[in-house]
Design brief:
heterodimer; A: about 425 residues; alpha/beta; 9-stranded mixed β-sheet; globular; B: about 525 residues; mainly alpha; two-stranded antiparallel ribbon; 27 helices; about 0% strand
C-alpha cells in the first residue's frame, strides 16, 4: 500500500469514527423518510410455526359436529361470558383468550379466511414451512424466500426494504437481497461490546492489516448501535421491557416484544416496507386445553401482539397477515390434542381489509367435506391470499405476482377481501 | 496423471509463482517450468513452515490445542502430519467414541432408546388435561446431567446430551480424534436431520455417532445405507410411513406413498438437484423403498415389511429394478441406493462439497475432478478421496481462503482456550452458535447448514463473533505458543492489551476468524 493510499484509508476511518463517537448517531436516510407519509402500505407477516389450531381461534360453534369431535378441547357455545366462544356470527366465534381482538372485528379491520393453505399435502412442518416461505409448494429445492424476492420489487432503489425480528436467518427473508435482521427479545436492544469506543479502536488495530474486516466490523457495530438506540425509550413503551429474552425459536410470549421492536424500527425507518415475525410453540399434539390451558395462553399472547401491531401499522394500506404452514385435525386425538392436518385459518388485519367478516368457502365439518375425512380442506391457496394482499397493500402490479409466486393462480373468490 | 496435468494447465503461471512465499514451500527452488515438467501425479510440492502448520491444524481440526501445536512442530512436516491425522481419524472412526460417562445414553442400544421414547409418551399421556408442562426445565440444566432423567423429558435430555457430545468432541483431543470430529460434522450436515422434530429427538446423538462418525472415512455407499436405515432419518423424512397403497382400516386413514425421503436421497444425499433425475424417478425410487420402516425392538432399529412393499418393476435413472429374482424386496432398495451412491453425479457432488468444506468456497475444478475420479475408481472410498485432497497443492494454497462458520468458531475458541471440558464455556459456545443462526444440530431442512463466507461473513455476525470472543476469553491465561502464527500487525494489537485481555483479541483476530 502506498503512503498516500494508507493516508486516505485512515482519513476515511476517522470519518466513520467521528460519526460513531458523537454518541447520537446520524441516520440521514431514516430521518428524511420518517416525516413523509407513504402512499403505499407496509406488510407484516406473523408466522406461527408448528401449525396453530385455527379451529380454536376461529371457533365454528354453528356446526354441531364441532363439539362432538372435540369432546375435551372444544370451546363451548357462546353464552355472552368469557368462559365460552365470543360470537362473531351464526357460524363462528372467537376464542375468549382473544377477547382483545373483538373490537377490531367490530371496527371492520379484522377478517378471517377459514380454509386457506398449501395445495401440497405434506404434513411435515419443515417441508410445509419451507414451501410457505419460498412460495413454492411441493418443492424442496434450494430457493430464495418470497419476501426476499419481494423486497427487490418494493421501495425505490438502494436501502433495505425488509426487516425480520426474532429469527437469525428465516428462510422467507433469505436470498441475494440485503435485508435487516434483528435478534430476538432483548438481544435486539444490546449494542454489544463494540458500543464502547475504546473496544472499537482496539479491534480496529487488530484488523489493521485487513480493510474488509475493519469495515465490516464498523458497519456491524454501527447497525447494532442504531438498532439499540431506536429501541430505547421514548420510542419503546416501558411495559414490555422486562420480558425475558427467549433463546432459540421465539415463544408466543416473546412474540409481543419482537412485535414491539418491529413496529418501532419500521416507524423509524420508512424505507422498510416488509416485516416478518414468527413464534413457535403451536404444535399442540397433547393436552392443548380449551378455554384455558396451553393453547389459550398462546392465543392470548397472539391477540395482544396483534393489538400492538394494529397500533403501529394503522396507515391506510398497512396490513398484518397471520398464518401457519398447515392446519390441525378437526377432531381431537387420543391425547387431548390435535395432529397435523391440512387447511387452516388465515387472518388479515388493516384498514384496507373488508373486515368484520370471514371470506371464501366454508362447507362445515361434515366428514365428507373434510380433506381425507379429517382436516379442513384447502379451498384457497395461501399464495392467492398473499397475492391479493400484495396488490391491495403494496400496489404491486398483478403482472409481477408470478415473480414472487411462480405458478400461483389468481383466486376470484377472494376478490372481496380488500376494499377497493 | 491426466487430471493433475489439467490442474497445472488451468492456472496461469503467476498462480504457481504465488506459492513461492518464504518458508512456505520447499519446492520453490525449481523454476515453474521445471515444476511443470517433473511434477509427479500427486504431491507436486512439499509443504513447510508456520503458515502450512496453521492451515493443517485449523482446517483438519477445529483449531490449535497446545498438544496439537507441539505435535505438528515435533513432526516438522505439515503434510505428513495431515496424512497422519487422516489415518488416525479413520482408525478412530472404527472404534467406539470416548463418551463422557454422563453422556453414554445417547449411544445406548436402539431398543433402549425406543423404550425411553415410549416411556416419555406414556408419561405425557397421563398428565391431566390442561396442565402445562414446563419444557424449559430441561434446558435450564443444560450440560449438567447428574440428575436422573425424568421420563417426561427423556427426548429433550437426549438432545441436550447429543449437543454436549458435539461440543465435547470438537473441543478436546482427549474426547475425540480431532480430525474425526470435523468429518463427523461434515457428514451429519450432509445427511442432515433435525433434532427438534419430536420423533427424531432421542436418536440424534446415536445418529451422529453410528452414521456420520462410524462411516466418516469408509465407503460412501455404506454411509448412505446406514443413514437410510437409521430411525432418525426414517422419522425425519417420513420414510417410515411410506407404504404401498393400503385401504383404510380400524379407524385409520388409507395410507400410501410418501416421496419425501426418496426425493432428498437423490437431490441432497447423492446426485444433486442437477444430477439428472426427474419427478418420475423420485416416484419410482419411493416405490422401491416402500416397506422400509422403524423397528423398536430390532438392534439396528430398522425393518423391511414385505406386506407394505410395492412389488413389480421400477425404473430409476434408466436402470431397471429389481435387477434379478434374487434382488427383490429389501435387496432392490439397497441395490438402488448403491447405484445412486456410486453414480458419477454423486462422485462430483460429494467431492465438490468436501472441497468446499476443506479447501475453498469455490474450489478449483481440477481438484474436484481429481477427487471425483478417485471416488469412482475406489468405489466411493472417502478416505482415498480425502487423501487426494490433502496431497493436492490446492489444499495448501494460501489463496484458497475459508471463513469459519459460527459452530467452527465456537469449537475453535474452546480449543484455543484449552476449555474442552469446561461446561460453563460449552454453554457460552452453544449460545453463541444459536444466536448466530448455527445452532448445534439445529437446522430444520434436509439441505444442512451452508458453510461459505457469503452466508456467515456479515457485519452484524462479525460483531457478535467479537462479543463472544471477548466474553468467553475474559481473564483466560495467554497461549504464547500461538503467537508465532499471528501476523505482525495482529501481534502488535494483541500485545497492546493487558495480559488477561489478550486471548479475546487472539480469538477475534483474522487468523482465527478465517482458517
Amino acid at each position: 500500500m502506498t503512503l498516500k493510499a494508507k493516508h486516505m484509508l485512515i482519513n476515511r476511518r476517522q470519518a466513520i469514527f467521528q460519526s460513531l463517537g458523537m454518541g447520537a448517531f446520524a441516520f440521514p436516510a431514516v430521518s428524511a423518510m420518517a416525516s413523509s407519509s407513504s402512499t403505499s402500505g407496509r406488510i407484516v407477516i406473523v408466522f406461527l410455526r408448528g401449525a396453530y389450531d385455527g379451529l380454536s381461534m376461529l371457533v365454528p360453534h354453528g356446526d354441531a359436529r364441532y363439539a362432538q369431535i372435540r369432546p375435551n378441547i372444544a370451546i363451548p357455545q357462546p353464552d355472552g361470558t368469557l368462559k365460552t366462544a365470543l360470537a362473531l356470527d351464526e357460524n363462528f366465534g372467537l376464542h375468549p383468550a382473544c377477547n382483545a381482538l373483538l373490537p377490531l372485528w367490530h371496527q371492520g379491520v379484522l377478517a378471517a379466511i377459514p380454509c386457506a393453505g398449501s395445495p401440497d399435502s405434506s404434513r411435515s412442518h419443515f417441508d410445509a414451512q419451507y414451501h410457505w416461505e419460498t412460495g413454492k409448494p411441493g418443492s424442496s429445492s434450494p430457493s430464495d424466500g418470497w419476501m426476499n424476492v419481494l423486497s427487490g420489487m418494493v421501495g425505490n432503489g438502494a436501502g433495505l426494504h425488509a426487516l425480520g425480528v426474532g429469527e437469525s436467518s428465516p428462510r422467507i427473508l433469505s436470498g441475494p437481497r440485503s435485508v435487516q435482521l434483528v435478534g430476538n427479545g432483548l438481544l435486539a436492544t444490546r449494542p454489544g461490546t463494540l458500543a464502547e469506543s475504546k473496544t472499537r479502536e482496539a479491534i480496529l488495530q487488530l484488523y489493521a492489516g485487513n480493510e474488509k474486516m475493519a469495515n465490516a466490523m464498523l458497519e456491524g457495530a454501527n447497525n447494532r448501535m442504531s438498532t439499540a438506540a431506536m429501541l430505547k425509550a421514548p420510542n419503546m413503551a416501558a411495559s414490555n421491557e422486562q420480558q425475558a429474552a427467549n433463546n432459540g425459536a421465539g415463544s408466543p410470549q416473546g412474540l409481543a416484544l419482537d412485535a414491539k421492536h418491529l413496529g418501532v424500527l419500521m416507524q423509524q425507518n420508512r424505507q422498510l416496507r416488509l416485516g416478518f415475525l414468527s413464534s413457535g410453540g403451536w404444535d399442540t399434539h397433547i393436552n392443548q386445553g380449551n378455554v384455558t390451558g396451553l393453547l389459550a395462553n398462546n392465543l392470548n399472547n397472539l391477540a395482544n401482539t396483534l393489538v400492538q401491531l394494529r397500533a403501529a401499522f394503522n396507515e391506510p394500506n398497512d396490513l398484518v397477515i397471520v398464518a401457519s404452514e398447515f392446519g390441525r385435525t378437526c377432531a381431537e386425538n387420543g391425547t387431548r390434542g390435535t395432529d397435523h392436518g391440512h387447511g387452516n385459518v388465515m387472518w388479515l388485519l388493516g384498514n384496507r381489509v373488508q373486515g368484520g367478516k370471514w371470506h371464501g368457502r366454508w362447507d362445515g365439518l361434515a366428514q365428507n367435506q373434510l380433506n381425507e375425512g379429517r382436516d379442513l380442506p384447502v379451498h384457497h391457496d395461501f399464495r392467492a391470499v398473499l397475492a391479493q394482499a400484495l396488490v391491495a397493500s403494496l400496489g404491486l402490479p398483478r403482472t409481477q405476482l408470478s415473480d414472487v409466486f411462480p405458478g400461483y393462480r389468481w383466486d376470484v373468490m377472494l376478490d372481496g377481501i380488500f376494499k377497493t | 496423471m491426466t487430471p493433475n496435468l489439467r490442474f497445472i494447465s488451468f492456472k496461469p503461471l503467476g498462480y504457481l509463482l504465488g506459492f513461492c512465499l518464504p518458508f512456505y514451500l520447499a519446492g520453490c527452488a525449481q523454476s515453474p517450468q521445471t515444476l511443470l515438467a517433473t511434477t509427479p501425479s500427486f504431491s507436486p510440492i512439499e509443504v513447510q513452515g508456520t503458515a502450512a502448520e496453521w492451515r493443517a491444524i485449523n482446517r483438519l481440526t477445529y483449531g490449535p490445542t497446545p498438544s496439537l501445536i507441539a505435535d505438528i512442530k515435533l513432526n516438522g512436516r505439515p503434510k505428513e502430519w495431515a496424512l497422519n491425522q487422516l489415518d488416525a481419524a479413520r482408525k478412530a472412526s472404527l472404534e467406539r467414541p470416548r463418551l463422557p460417562s454422563d453422556l453414554v445414553s445417547i449411544n445406548d442400544s436402539l431398543p433402549t432408546i425406543f423404550d425411553g421414547a415410549r416411556k416419555e409418551r406414556e408419561a405425557r399421556a397421563s398428565v391431566p388435561s390442561g396442565t402445562p408442562i414446563n419444557e424449559q426445565v430441561v434446558n435450564e440444566k443444560r450440560f449438567h446431567f447428574h440428575d436422573q432423567t425424568e421420563d417426561l423429558f427423556y427426548n429433550r435430555t437426549q438432545v441436550n446430551k447429543a449437543i454436549a457430545w458435539r461440543l465435547a468432541s470438537c473441543s478436546s483431543d482427549e474426547n475425540e480424534q480431532p480430525m474425526l470430529a470435523r468429518m463427523t460434522e461434515f457428514w451429519f450436515n450432509h445427511f442432515n436431520i433435525f433434532q427438534q422434530k419430536g420423533t427424531v429427538r432421542p436418536f440424534a446423538g446415536h445418529y451422529a455417532i453410528n452414521v456420520a462418525r462410524a462411516h466418516a472415512l469408509g465407503k460412501f455407499e455404506d454411509l448412505v445405507l446406514a443413514s437410510a436405515k437409521h430411525p432418525a432419518m426414517l422419522y425425519y423424512l417420513d420414510q417410515w410411513l411410506s407404504v404401498s397403497p393400503q385401504p383404510a382400516r380400524g379407524g385409520q386413514s388409507p395410507r400410501g406413498l410418501n416421496e419425501n425421503y426418496a426425493r432428498e436421497l437423490m437431490e441432497l444425499h447423492t446426485l444433486g438437484v442437477n444430477g439428472g433425475f426427474s419427478q418420475n424417478d423420485v416416484r419410482e425410487l419411493a416405490r422401491l423403498l416402500t416397506g422400509w420402516t422403524v423397528a423398536p425392538r430390532a438392534q439396528d432399529g430398522f425393518q423391511f415389511v414385505m406386506r407394505l412393499h410395492e412389488s413389480g418393476h421400477k425404473t430409476v435413472m434408466g436402470k431397471s429394478f429389481p435387477s434379478s429374482a434374487q434382488f427383490v424386496g429389501l435387496r432392490e432398495g439397497e441395490e438402488a441406493i448403491r447405484f445412486l451412491a456410486n453414480h458419477p453425479a454423486t462422485a462430483q457432488r460429494v467431492s465438490r462439497r468436501l472441497a468446499e468444506y476443506f479447501v475453498a468456497d469455490l474450489p478449483p475444478k481440477a481438484l474436484v475432478d481429481l477427487m471425483a475420479s478417485t471416488f469412482l475408481t475406489t468405489g466411493g472410498d472417502i478416505y482415498q478421496v480425502m487423501k487426494v485432497m490433502l496431497n493436492h497443492s490446492a489444499f495448501w494454497d494460501p489463496e484458497n481462503k475459508l471463513y469459519r462458520t459460527p459452530y467452527d468458531f465456537a469449537c475453535g475458541s474452546l480449543r484455543a482456550l484449552n476449555a474442552g471440558n469446561d461446561r460453563n464455556k460449552w454453554l457460552q459456545a452453544f449460545g453463541y452458535a444459536a444466536v448466530s443462526g448455527h445452532g448445534i444440530q439445529n437446522w430444520q431442512t434436509p439441505d444442512g447448514y451452508a458453510f461459505n463466507a457469503n452466508t456467515w461473513f456479515t457485519p452484524e455476525a462479525l460483531t457478535r463473533r467479537i462479543d463472544f470472543a471477548l466474553t468467553i476469553a475474559r481473564n483466560a491465561p495467554e497461549r504464547s505458543d500461538l503467537y508465532p502464527y499471528l501476523s505482525d500487525s495482529t501481534s502488535k494489537a494483541v500485545m497492546m492489551q493487558a495480559p488477561l485481555q489478550r486471548m479475546g483479541f487472539v480469538l477475534g483476530s483474522s487468523e482465527l476468524v478465517f482458517k
